[in-house]
Amino acid sequence: MRKLLLASAAITLTAGGAFAETITMGVDLAFTGPLESMAPPIAQSIEMALKEVSDSGKLLDGVTLTPVRGDTTCVDAAAATATVERLVTAEKVRGIVGGMCSGETIASLTNVAIPNGVVMISPSATSPALSTMDTRGFFYRTSPSDARQGEVMTDIILEHGVKSVAVTYTNNDYGKGLADSFAESFKAKGGTVTIVAAHDDGKADYSAEVAALAAAGGDALVVAGYVDQGGSGILRGALDTGAFETFVLPDGMVTATLEKNFGSELDGSFGQMPASEGAGHDKFLEIAKAAGFEGSAIYAAEAYDAAALMMLAMQAAGSTDPKVYKDKIVSIANGPGEKILPGELAKGLELIKEGKAIDYDGATAVTFVNERESAGTFREIEMKDGKITTVKYR
Asked: Which of 132, 230, 295, 358 could form a disulfide with 201 if both were Cys (CB 3.0 to 4.6 A apart)?
């Protein structure tokens, strides 16, 4: 009788999903380094999406997900590669949201993710080099390429009546890719670029770099850098010497740190960052607030979408194996089908289980071009009364 009762209990537990699979998912971000102030809300967005799906119990009949964080440092490709190696080989992750910066993402993909067949979806690695890299279907990004950002930045600058600019960029894949894309676009539309000069992060003094930029001149200075590193050093040097009065601030410069460090000193300066608007974005802000973090932080929405796409693709593929579900990611994002917004991941999973098509619109109205990256929209910003204010979306 005792054996019969134990067998019955085992059957009951199995039917109730007590033995459902638990899988690990990588959260691979720059928790230290020049973008460390950006990382916390990005990580919280990823983990919020994982929790939403785990709590629903609807992923492949009860699969639950455990996030495992890894630090890419943003700037150290060897450290990033070692981190992803740990996530893949020791933690056995079934997918990675990350990397965060372009150079370390390229290194991690080449050295670890692609050889091991693990999907990476980056919310923020924007180098144009990632558009043409042979990733064998294991890489996607929910942010647009900097080739697109360069075009948007050109339009914004010209609309401000600025005809000539000096350009400084952080000396890595992100900075060079954005600077080159922008310079090409700006010149093609009649603008003048007086200088394009790299700066290294981590220096105590940027007076030499600022002097070279000032000597070249221009109506404004484009700072394609990191606000937690050399970008702020360049700004401080230029402001203190009066080298420039107007600054153009791309995505790596647009965080609350900008307000904290410079405030009204930058009033009248402007720039842009990938961002969205509409019902999906509003819903994301709402659920992020309920979860206790700021959803409007740069790349937070893109991070939620990256995690959501992986899990919905798993459901569509009927597998948590990245070699299998990678082929469903684009169709989940691009539809056609019923639109799914943030907070509706359980609904999306149910519809897929029922054999119905979905179109994951998400927090950023994500639609893939080039079979791997979001077309993207941009939030034009301006510094006003010491605060980052929204002008419009493009």
From this structure: 230
